[in-house]
Amino acid sequence: GLGFCSWKRQRKQLLHPLMANRSLCMAGCSQDASYKRLINEGEKKTVICIEGNIASGKTTCLDYFAKTTSIEVLTEPVPKWRNVRGHNLLGLMYQDSSRWGITLQTYIQLTMLDQHTRPMISPLRMMERSIHSAKHIFVENLYRSGRMPEVDYVVLTEWFEWITKNTDVSVDLIVYLQTSPETCYERLKNRCREEEKIIAMEYLEAIHQLYEEWLIKQTLFKVPSPVLVIPADNDMQKMIEKYEENRDRILTPYNIQHCL
Ligand SMILES: Nc1ncnc2c1ncn2[C@@H]1O[C@H](COP(=O)(O)OP(=O)(O)O)[C@@H](O)[C@H]1O
Ligand SMILES: Cc1cn([C@H]2C[C@H](O)[C@@H](COP(=O)(O)O)O2)c(=O)[nH]c1=O
């Protein structure tokens, strides 16, 4: 069934500047509405990231929420990765990941930083993946599989740490679309993106394992927000039902923290 990944280990970390006022507000306000108003009037806006393996259904999920809500939706900038002034970095990486992994991941880190720091046009932003998963899943996989030299990994890590320390790339909720690698393999074949034809089942298994270590076991790297897990192996109709069941939890992440 559906379930929240335990966030208790990191509860002490206040994710929203206004959360610091939570006990004060809850003591002074009789209604939750006052607290919500306080959040809405605050400077900080809410960022929800949809995470999951390649072809797990993230874009489809974002499209559904884009159609059925008025929130800001940012899909992954894959078109940029396929065409940087005429160069297809995604294609180059899949052809020779040892040579082009660092090039693609450097550019992805830049485009993700651009997404996170872009002025928000709505109080609620839904993003496909994040700078965090690009680093903790994809860079990590290249490094662990021996296809990225340590020196490249270290330079990307220094950049990542500088960015997370000096810019606001915070996330309020991660929605993890949890699929089996087999499901992703099927969907990937159906989607038929030219560059990805080379992807083997083992690659999807490795990405899956890293996602599970990061977001479920929480043993890989610090998770930047609470995690809502939505099993996503089902057909489209069932997935829409699940999105509807979880609509409030997804769109009002602070309610989740109230429940913990
Ligand atoms: N629940 C589903 N059942 C079957 N096919 C799906 C489902 N969700 C998405 N798809 C299809 O699978 C492929 C990958 O979905 P997509 O949303 O592009 O995944 P992602 O953005 O995670 O890579 C697309 O062809 C999409 O139409
Ligand atoms: C974030 C990120 C992505 N990629 C690759 C993996 C896929 O081939 C595409 C993204 O497509 P998806 O269907 O949205 O998963 O880009 C990568 O190689 N490195 C990354 O950091």
UniProtKB/TrEMBL annotation:
Q: Name one GO molecular function term.
A: ATP binding
User: So what does this thing catalyse?
Assistant: 2'-deoxyuridine + ATP = dUMP + ADP + H(+); 2'-deoxycytidine + ATP = dCMP + ADP + H(+); thymidine + ATP = dTMP + ADP + H(+)
- One Pfam family recorded for the sequence: dNK
Q: Which SUPFAM superfamilies match?
A: P-loop containing nucleoside triphosphate hydrolases
Which keywords are on file for this protein?
Answer: ATP-binding, DNA synthesis, Kinase, Mitochondrion, Nucleotide-binding, Signal, Transferase, Transit peptide
- Lineage top rank: taxon: Eukaryota
Q: Report what the protein is called.
A: Thymidine kinase 2, mitochondrial
* GO biological process terms, semicolon-separated: carbohydrate derivative metabolic process; DNA biosynthetic process; nucleotide metabolic process
Chief localization: mitochondrion
Instruction: Write down the EC number.
Output: 2.7.1.21, 2.7.1.74
The UniProt entry's GO CC annotations, sorted and at most eight, read: mitochondrion
Q: Where in the cell is it found?
A: Mitochondrion
Which residues does the UniProt record annotate as the domain Deoxynucleoside kinase?
A: 48-245
Please state which protein family the record places this protein in: Belongs to the DCK/DGK family.
